[in-house]
Here is the input.
Amino acid sequence: GAVVSQHPSWVICKSGTSVKIECRSLDFQATTMFWYRQFPKQSLMLMATSNEGSKATYEQGVEKDKFLINHASLTLSTLTVTSAHPEDSSFYICSATGGKDYEQYFGPGTRLTVT
Amino acid sequence: GESVGLHLPTLSVQEGDNSIINCAYSNSASDYFIWYKQESGKGPQFIIDIRSNMDKRQGQRVTVLLNKTVKHLSLQIAATQPGDSAVYFCAEDPPGGGNKLTFGTGTQLKVEL
Here is the structure.
């Protein structure tokens, strides 16, 4: 089956610094990748949609200058949280489509803690 | 069932019993629905899906029912096992949304021995 990985699985950073999260499709080419954020005991909230070679489309209320998304290849998308603050602490999950069907395959998530 | 807000609904069942998890979706034009299982600290895992031209679909130990009249989706798990303990989310794929999924609020399933 289609496998999506994320790196790192968890990260702790200081307030004001930036952190990059990678999302990779390991055995298929992902034409579209999605980035979600999930706070404890809440649902997944879509942040942005990323298509290879083009600018990401952000959901309403998500700051594009704070959450930089790059989808430079068909197997890699990155999310950079710039000038992180404690309220950015969350579980960030990516998903990818583009395999034989259009099912979304989810990564294992990245736990970000900003101190 | 699922509800709006920060409180995660919980369903507790005895091992071996059947579980029924409910979901109300929002867009009457949605034509594709998926149930996901999420274990603590992990990403969502696909369980089963259903298209709007169907009202029932069965998998291994799981059945999804779709009632378009009342915009209701349910997931039935037969002979619930401890390994089924997780949070379950329904998701809908509205038409023209470019595969963007809208997730429900989730239900915590706890299986008691």
